[in-house]
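The methods section describes the discrete structure representation at length, but only in general terms. Since the whole study asks how a given chain folds, the encoding of that fold should be made plain. An entry of this sort, consisting of the sequence and the corresponding backbone structure tokens, reads as follows:

. . .
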Amino acid sequence: MMLVQKYIGQQVLRPFILSLLALTTLALLTQSLQTIDLITKDNQSASTFFYITLLAMPKLIAIIMPISLFLSVLYSLNRIAMDGELIIAKAAGMSTWEICTP
């Protein structure tokens, strides 16, 4: 793996984790509002509510992960292009596909 690809991977990882965390939190809040009726209507305990919410997390993360990756790649490549680092990589002989590969 080339040094430039490691650098770009590190630049994508931080926004990916932050956007995944933010979007997952938002999705869990909306999911929680939908399942809050379980506590009030059926007189269930709070542990049942948290258990159902935890069971919904893998499905939500599977839906959110590609969106988060797309947003983080767009953000990172835009920032790298604005800083002029993309031009330097192309001047060094790297093609666009070599820059974007993991």
About this structure: Helices lie at 3-35, 37-42, 46-82, 85-91, 96-100.
